[in-house]
Amino acid sequence: MSAPEERAALPPASLYSCALRLLRAEPDGRLPEGGYALPDPPERRPRTRTSWKSACEALTEVLTEALTPPASRTDADTGTDAPGVARAAEEIHPRLAGLSIRGGHVQSVVTGLPLADEGRARALGRCLTRTGTSPMAVCVGLALLTRLGEPEDVPYLRVLGRLRDLADHAVRALDPIDSPAAALVWLGRHTRGPELRGLVDALAAGEESSVPGRLEAVLRKVREVRPETARRVAEAVRLADLLREARPGETGLVAGTGRLLRRMSSANDYRAEVLACPVAVGLFEAFAVRAAELPPTLDHHAILLSVALELHSGPSRLLEWGAGRREALLDLLESVLGRPDWRALLAGGSVEDGDPAGQRRLDWARRTARQPFRRDAGCTGPAGRLRIEATVLDPVDPDIVETRVLIDGRPLVPAAFGRGGAHAPEYLLDSGRLRATDEPREVQLAEAYCTEGCCGALHVTIRREGDHVIWSDWRRPAPPPSLLPARELPEYRFEAAAYDAEITRAENDHSWAWPARKTARLIAAGVRDRPDLLTRWDVEQGWIGTDFRDRDRTVVTLVHRAVPSACQGGEDAHRQHLVWHVPDDGTTPEHRAAAALHRLATVDPRTYGGGGAGRSARSA
Fold first, then answer.
1. From the DSSP assignment, how many helices (H) and strands (E) are in the chain?
2. What is the rounded CA–CA span in Å between residue 233 and residue 214?
């Protein structure tokens, strides 16, 4: 027999042994960007095309048979004997390799599978992950270890995580038993860029002395990374421990930790990643203890204020804090920002000329300085069950305005939805949508960042019933995975008088709005009160707010249904979108809004050409 024939006659190597061989060939144990590709199997078996439901049923049948001990088993048997389980794994391997089913569906099947003998199921998972030669067999093994894995499985899971198509499955199995290892595998699979790759390589190679420097390079640019990346960095480097052990005066690490906490609390990645971070409480505590070391600068003030807002009413309020721990951290941050040198920072006139972003940030800090340190958001009595706060985040962040709804002191939207932030105050408050009437009204409180049609939205029906206002009949998709247990949303009952008072207070609170945003709100209110301002010109209200690229500029969009001319052909009207930039003439928002409403009353907006208006047209 020739050498090629001898090699062909050998049994295929397990995916684990292939990954281990590639890892050992890598200099210093570094992680390849994106992971290794799966080795091609020596023989591809044709797969039968079936529905995913049929494939799931087939997988359930295969696993049920494999997890059922042989009939000859005695009472003394444990069901986890290596030979018996190894034979079962060998027998089901060809059947698993022939299944066509996505990894997510595999996990769903295994999660819902009744396990009469967890020891046998764990042993089967280990056999499949360590000896499996097909991706499907290894994927099933990883799904079993996601439920049943133990610390001794970590080395094998880390190696399998180097394979690109198995990395996310390995991460799910690692998360419950070794979150730093899970984070490193995830970062190796998903991160790009020199700073992040440098940190990942240092961690993978065990170069502990270079980790702090590489970490600070990442933290300086943490606003540019996804919220999940920020969380995984914190877990991989054990950031809370690093911060506790850092020498006094390492302010770069302290400030960077604050930025990272804010980033991982953002809902811009659909869910607030801080809720999936098992060390989040310790990280907040380590940061707050070291906060006093930061010198008083505008950037540091914004970091401390952002963390305080998060602890006050953001998703992090949902973490398992225990009695008084979160409040103690707010007290620490308040004591720092209340020192004379920090107060003087806000009392100064303005930032340097030519720095509008800095001035915008300073104005935000002045408006927001007291909001996170009010204690009224935590009321739990019948008259204080509901609290609504319009919250503006640091202007350097995208999507900076949201309406935070707290019930019994708990933020509702991140707890009940978790696929995007709550709607802006203009949508929920200025429109009167949260007012209760005798006629039930369904209100959309939040929408997924992609769109409702893709990942859903959070809806509630609000109605008045005697002396109470009731929130009920919730509509939402299943919440994404996190450390928060999924639960049915209850019917909330509020005392009507207290409810009306809170809605009125929130609707009339304009302290959060900067001048351009306040101008937009006043214009929108004027248009709602006087619909004839638009109907006389045959136009409809579009969006009224501030420019996404320049938040200091007010934008009014109007829609005109125009009938095509004969040369254009067709009879249906098409929509013209008119964009009007209201100029900032240095006057108050009230004056600018009044001037804009007067112009709408006297001049056809379809003629607002040049110097303040643009026009675009598209078919409806």
1. 27, 11
2. 11
User: pTM of the entire structure?
Assistant: 0.88
Strand 492-495 versus strand 539-546 pairing type: unpaired
Q: What is the pLDDT of residue 567?
A: 56
Q: Looking up tokens 């709602």, which residue turns up?
A: 528
Torsion sign across C-alpha atoms 522, 527, 529, 533: positive
* Residues 517 and 551: beta-carbon distance below 8 Å: yes
Nearest by Cα to 438 from 454, 461, 414, 410: 461
The answer to whether 221 and 187 are in contact (CB under 8 A) is no
The mean pLDDT value of the chain amounts to 86
Nearest to 390 by CA among 470, 309, 328: 309
Summarize pLDDT for 255-291 with one digit per residue, the tens: 999 999 999 998 776 788 999 999 999 999 999 999 9
Q: Sorting pLDDT into bands at 50, 70 and 90, what band is 618?
A: very low
Question: In the prediction, which pLDDT does 620 show?
Answer: 23
Q: Is the pLDDT of residue 1 over 50?
A: no
The residues near 505 (Cβ < 8 Å, ≥ 6 apart) are none
Token pair in block for residue 299: 């950037």
Distance from C-alpha of 211 to C-alpha of 237, rounded to nearest angstrom = 8
Q: Which segment of 31-40, 402-411, 515-524 scores lowest on mean pLDDT?
A: 31-40
Each residue of 63-87: b (16+ CB within 10 Å) or e? Answer: beebbebeeeeeeeeebbeeebbee
DSSP string covering 207-234, please? Answer: -GGGHHHHHHHHHHTGGGS-HHHHHHHH
**Mapping DSSP to helix (H, G, I), strand (E, B) and coil, where does residue 124 land?**
helix
Residue 409 has pLDDT above 50, yes or no: yes
**Each residue of 472-484: b (16+ CB within 10 Å) or e?**
eebebeebbebeb
Hey, which residues does 595 pair with through a beta bridge? none
Contact by Cβ (8 Å): 320, 276: no
**401-407 sheet: strands from edge to edge:** 386-392, 401-407, 410-411
Q: Going edge to edge, which strands form the sheet with 468-475? A: 441-447, 457-465, 468-475, 492-495
The span from the CA of 33 to the CA of 164, in Å, is 10
Which of 9-13, 21-25, 86-90, 601-605 has the largest mean confidence?
601-605
In the predicted structure, residue 155 carries a pLDDT above the cut 70: yes
